[in-house]
Design a protein that fits this description.
Blueprint: H1 7-98, E1 102-106, E2 112-115, H2 117-120, H3 135-144, H4 155-166, E3 174-177, E4 183-190, E5 196-202, H5 204-253, H6 259-289, E6 298-301, H7 302-312, H8 314-319, E7 322-328, E8 335-338, H9 340-356, E9 361-373, E10 376-385, H10 392-395, H11 419-429, E11 433-439, E12 443-452, E13 472-476, H12 480-492, E14 496-500, H13 503-512, E15 517-521, H14 529-539, E16 545-549, H15 556-559, E17 564-569, H16 574-580, E18 609-614, H17 618-627, E19 633-638, H18 641-651, E20 655-659, H19 667-675, E21 685-689, H20 694-702, E22 707-710, H21 715-725
Parallel strand pairs: 7-9, 13-14, 13-15, 15-16, 16-17, 18-19, 18-20, 20-21, 21-22
Antiparallel strand pairs: 1-2, 1-5, 3-4, 4-5, 6-8, 9-10, 10-12, 11-12
Length: 737
């Protein structure tokens, strides 16, 4: 049953229901609003996302379009690159084909991948030789099919040799000679990627040209040998009669002649010596031109060598009244290492030219030490003269062959024009330098510099001291330069020097104070030296006098005077002065002046010196005999080597002079046989020859000779050789001075 509620209750209930409904509506409305807000926010987010995605899509679409363009460009570039590569390959192939040399490339498996026709041409007839063939197969074809000459090797050995070569880290080049007459130089290289590059250079023409050069060189050497033999033979043929001409002229000059006859004899002698000089120049130039100039360094006394050259040229200088002067650095070592013969040849050429081209005045030779190094002393030697001089344009060519200072059409002086060219080549071979300074009408100065090692026991030139008691000296000379050089050396030795240029001044000086020694120049211009010596002897009878002489023969009368201690050759050597005054050791600096007594002097031993001379030329026999006629010797002559051996067996000579070129048996063979005979091993044998080529000289000395003299023979050289090799006691003479 329904119970009806009161109205108030119903109203209250409805009111409550309405309130719940309102609250629910508000709640739903809030939730709806929140949901709507959430949806709005989500919508905005979706909108932003869509916008972003649209932007990304646009960007991606833009990128895609760009990539599509790039892809097209890359495709185009790639196509161009392929085109260029194809063109480059085509050019490379064409270039390789144009090579005259063979060119091939093998890959790391040693398979041929590229070869030009020059490489393949030697394999014509072998179709398999093309890209794809292996290297070993190529080598086998060369060996087994006779393509390559194997130089005596078996095919198997040759193949293995080639494969071993191919596998070396560094493949050495080699030559191959093909049966078709082609020769190649094979050069193989391994590149970074492992491929092999083979280059085959055709050397057929080069080998042919090389063979032609060798043949041409052989012919040239044969021509040089023929020229040398011709020159040697001509030298021998000319020197042999010149020995008679020069020797007889020298002997004739020693006889009693009037002035006219002596002039004739001296002209013959000088002309003969001039001809010998020309022959020597031509031979020297020929040897140098053929590259056969050899140097033989040995200890040489440079000061003595210069002095000997000056002494040799003294007669020519004295004839012109030219003063020869030597200035040798007192601190320069005396013994140096050099080729003595070549050094004298240099000095003789330079000093000889100076004397030749100087009409008056002086020739000064100065040797200076300008430093030292591990190689030796730097030595400068200058030759200064007051001659005709040389113009600037001629100075550039005087060291060339066949050049003359004078114009050919106006020549006053004879000569070959080879002396200075030879001198320059000798100095160049000694690694030195030569130069010239000159002014026409004033004079010339030739100089050369050399680095010369010092001999271990050498001492400076000025080390010898004068004996005690010589503190003052009178030096009489009217030549300024010579006087100053001698005075400087004396002052360096602690000697007070008083100089005079006139006889009167010298006598007045001695009257004021007597010196310990007087040094007098023989060549006082316009003054009588004999009167000066007499005056000095009267003023001070015990005054020791040293006479400096340019002519030793003329000085003999003065030398016999009790007051003349010694007569020394000019230019003065310090060691000679020291020896003459009683200090140091006697040194023979010049060849002995041979006295000419009316009769041969008695020998120091109980028998005569036995001398055997083997010579086929009758004139040379006569010259030799006359040169030795005043010596205490027993001379035997033999006309050939066979006769010399017979004479040696019965005569038992002390010294043998052996001509080299003789009929039946020459001097070399005779010497070899004498050396095997009883007493022949120790006997001195001196060769006499007209040959002057070094090869011939070496052959002569190798036969067992002790020494050698060249023709034409000089009496002084013969005397010196005889004194050097004669046994002691036969030719002993008192010391000079």
């Amino acid at each position: 049953m329904n119970i009806r509620l009161p109205l108030n209750d119903q109203l209250s209930r409805e009111r409550r229901a309405r309130l719940r409904a309102e609250r629910l509506y508000e709640q739903v409305q809030r939730e709806l609003k929140a949901a709507n807000h959430h949806l709005t926010r989500h919508a905005f987010e979706l909108s932003d996302q869509i916008i972003s995605q649209r932007e990304e899509l646009c960007l991606m679409r833009s990128r895609a379009e760009t990539l599509e363009g790039v892809n097209c460009q890359v495709a185009q570039d790639l196509q161009k690159a392929h085109s260029k590569a194809d063109m480059a390959n085509q050019r490379l192939r064409e270039a390789v084909e144009t090579l005259q040399d063979g060119f091939a490339v093998f890959d790391t498996d040693q398979t041929l991948i590229l070869a030009n026709q020059a490489y393949l041409s030697v394999f014509r007839g072998f179709a398999e030789v093309q890209p794809g063939i292996r290297y070993r197969r190529v080598v086998e074809l060369c060996a087994y099919e006779g393509v390559v000459l194997l130089q005596g090797m078996s095919p198997d050995t040759w193949v293995e040799m080639m494969m071993a070569r191919w596998l070396q880290p560094v493949i050495e080049p080699m030559e191959l000679h093909f049966s078709k007459g082609i020769s190649v130089r094979l050069a193989d290289r391994r590149v970074a990627n492992g491929d092999y590059v083979s280059l085959v250079h055709d050397i057929t023409g080069s080998l042919r040209y090389q063979a032609e050069l060798i043949e041409a060189q052989r012919k040239a050497e044969a021509a040089v040998e023929a020229k040398s033999a011709f020159l040697a033979n001509m030298s021998h043929e000319i020197r042999t009669p010149m020995n008679g001409v020069v020797g007889m002229a020298e002997l004739l000059s020693e006889t009693d002649l009037d002035d006219e006859q002596r002039g004739y004899a001296e002209t013959i002698s000088n002309s003969g010596q001039a001809l010998v000089t020309i022959i020597n120049d031509i031979l020297d130039f020929s040897k140098m031109d053929a590259g056969k100039m050899n140097l033989h360094p040995e200890p040489i006394d440079l000061e003595k060598a210069i002095h000997e050259v000056l002494i040799l040229l003294t007669p020519a200088a004295r004839a012109k009244s030219i003063e020869l002067i030597l200035d040798y650095d007192m601190f320069l070592p005396r013994q140096l290492l050099a080729d003595p013969g070549r050094m004298r040849q240099i000095l003789l050429n330079l000093v000889g030219n100076a004397v030749k081209f100087t009409e008056e005045g002086y020739v000064l030779v100065r040797a200076l030490g300008v430093g030292s190094s591990a190689l030796g002393h730097m030595v400068n030697v200058t030759v200064e003269d007051t001659g005709i001089g040389i113009s600037k344009e001629n100075q550039d060519r005087i060291f060339t062959e066949f050049s003359q200072v004078e114009e050919t059409a106006n020549r006053r002086f004879e000569g070959t024009g080879l002396g200075l060219a030879i001198t320059r080549q000798i100095i160049s071979a000694m690694e030195g330098q030569i130069w010239v300074e000159s002014e026409p009408g004033i004079g010339s100065c030739f100089g050369f510099s050399l680095v010369l090692p010092v001999e271990a026991s050498s001492v400076p030139a000025g080390l010898e001291a004068l004996p005690t008691g010589f503190k003052t000296a009178l030096l009489v000379s009217d030549h300024l330069i010579s006087r100053e050089i001698i005075a400087r050396r004396l002052q360096a030795a602690g000697v007070t020097v008083v100089t005079a240029t006139q006889s009167d001044a010298a006598l007045r000086s001695v009257a004021r104070q007597v010196p310990d020694v007087a040094i007098i120049d023989q060549d006082l211009n316009g003054q009588d030296v004999v009167n000066l010596l007499s005056g000095l002897n009267r003023a001070s009878p015990n005054l020791p006098i040293v006479l400096m002489c340019s002519n030793m023969t003329e000085a003999k009368a003065a030398q016999r005077s009790a007051s003349v201690r010694a007569a020394l050759p000019k230019p003065l050597l310090w060691r000679d002065l020291v020896t003459a005054l009683g200090g140091g050791t006697h040194l023979r600096t010049t060849l002995p002046v041979m006295e000419q007594p009316d009769e041969p002097r008695a020998p120091a031993t109980h028998r005569l010196l036995r001398v055997l001379y083997a010579e086929d030329n009758k004139t040379n026999q006569l010259v030799f005999s006359k040169m030795l006629k005043l010596l205490p010797i027993d001379l035997r002559l033999a006309e050939n080597g066979a006769k010399a051996i017979e004479e040696f067996a019965v005569f038992h000579p002390d010294v043998v002079f052996m001509d080299v070129s003789m009929p039946e048996m020459d001097g070399r063979e005779a010497t070899r046989r004498i050396r095997t005979m009883d007493g022949g091993a120790s006997v001195p044998i001196i060769a006499l020859t007209a040959h002057a080529m070094q090869d011939e000289i070496d052959r002569i000395m190798s036969a067992g000779m002790n020494a050698m003299l060249t023709k034409p023979l000089s009496k002084a050289e013969l005397m010196s050789a005889l004194h050097d090799h004669a046994p002691a006691g036969f030719l002993d003479t008192p010391d000079d001075g």
